[in-house]
């Protein structure tokens, strides 16, 4: 099946710094990608929908100026956590919809990025 | 987006069949039912998807009654490695811009 990768897999940063997380669709083009965050023992929470070539659509309660999303190409979306604070520590997961014409209607998920802000 | 309700947790012994039922009373005509599996510190992994009746693949079976207001994921002969959280999701997968919204999932613990 299609593969979605994330980089880095884990990152530790100091409070006040910014961190960029990359999400790539390795063998297909994804016009739409989604970003989720997940706290321990909790479910995935949708943060935003990333559309190639246009602005991301953020879910209610997600600060667009803090979580910057860029989807500059059909295979790459980035999430930048600006001025990170300890409460931003979480597991961030991206996903991409199966491309048109592919029989499966799956949504492919990346392996996730563990962010720890000290 | 249709809301789903699943048991919070389930326990099973190795080798048994496990059935996890999900309620989705407000499912729409265009909605499909999809199940994902998630291990700790990993992204969710697709298990199976269906629209109605029964779907079977090499991993699981999905039973959907005629009214589609519920679905049951059946895992045959579970092993310790099946310990994970299982999510039932409902949505129109034909719409490329529609994200999957996760409920709380069912935490399955398989015991030796």
Describe this structure in words.
The complex is a heterodimer of chains A (118) and B (112). Chain A is mainly beta. Helices cover 0% and strands 51% of the residues of chain A. Chain A contains no helices and eleven strands. In chain A, β5 and β6 form a beta hairpin. Chain A has strands at residues 4-7, 10-13, 19-25, 32-38, 45-51, 57-58, 67-73, 76-81, 90-97, 107-109, 113-117. Chain B has 112 residues and is an all-beta fold. Chain B has strands at 9-13, 18-23, 32-38, 45-50, 53-56, 61-64, 70-75, 84-91, 106-111. In chain B, strands 1-9-8-3-4 form a five-stranded mixed beta sheet, with no helix packed on it. In chain B, strands 2-7-6-5 form a four-stranded antiparallel beta sheet, with no helix packed on it. The relative contact order of chain B is 0.34. The chains are: A mainly beta (118), B mainly beta (112). The interface between A and B is medium-sized, with 28 and 22 residues.
Secondary structure elements and pairings:
The complex is a heterodimer of chains A (118) and B (112).
Chain A lengths: L3 E4 L2 E4 L5 E7 L6 E7 L6 E7 L5 E2 L8 E7 L2 E6 L8 E8 L9 E3 L3 E5 L1
Parallel strand pairs in A: 2-11
Antiparallel strand pairs in A: 1-3, 3-8, 4-5, 4-9, 5-6, 7-8, 9-10, 9-11
Chain B lengths: L8 E5 L4 E6 L8 E7 L6 E6 L2 E4 L4 E4 L5 E6 L8 E8 L14 E6 L1
Overall form of chain B: globular
How many helices of chain A? The count is: 0
- Uncertain segments of chain A are none
Describe the main β-sheet of chain B briefly: 5 strands, mixed
In short:
Chain A has 118 residues and is mainly beta. Chain A contains no helices and 11 strands. In chain A, a hairpin with a 2-residue loop joins strand 7 and strand 8.
Tag the structure with descriptive keywords.
heterodimer, A: mainly beta, seven-stranded mixed sheet, four-stranded antiparallel sheet, globular, B: 112 residues, mainly beta, 0% helix
